[in-house]
Amino acid sequence: MEKHISHKFDEDLEQIKNMVLKMGGVVEQQIADAVKAVETADSDLAEKVIRVEDEVDLKEVELDEACTSVLACRQPAASDLRMVLAITKMTRDLERMGDEAQKVAKMAIALQESGSKGYEEARHIGALVQKMVNTVLDAFARFDVEQALEVARTDKEVDREYKSAMREIVTYMMEDPRAITRSMNILWTLRAIERIGDHARNIAEHVIFLVKGLDVRHTSLQEIERRISNI
Fold it and tell me: Any idea where the PhoU domain is (predicted)?
């Protein structure tokens, strides 16, 4: 990003960038713990995930206030304005990731209370989504469009894996009605994890907007790649 005559302005922008990365780090750990909790039916770890959600909500409010202050006091233009706007949107997606992680954690608690085993089905999709979250935070830290595109590509893989798992689980339910309750719980768990991936892709799109000035929301991956290559 460009440097300014006002060092305080640069410090303000750097501060809100660091606040996003700190919030992202908390959410990233929350997701990892939630997936592990549901795999192992670990209610203690799940309770930790739920408690952390209050911290995530607080960070969202703090970031909103910091962005509002920069907009009001500095009246940024061009790339600086894109920076603040992108961060406000990213913050919202990070908070919603935390909400989905909380849903997964609650499923882990229900598992433990029912005496059931963990959902191994969550392992593969969970690993893909955790990779997306880690990569997109790094993409933002580095203003790296190629990393942002990699997140969008991985999201397509997550969607395929989710649909495949859904078909298998529905077939399993039809063959054994006794497995309906467990199967539905797995579906809800996988759905929450898949939604985290969607929010990671949203953040990737915000990074592209920040760096390239392109609004690529509701745009296919192929079209995003084409538009970037034409710049």
Answer: 20-107, 123-207
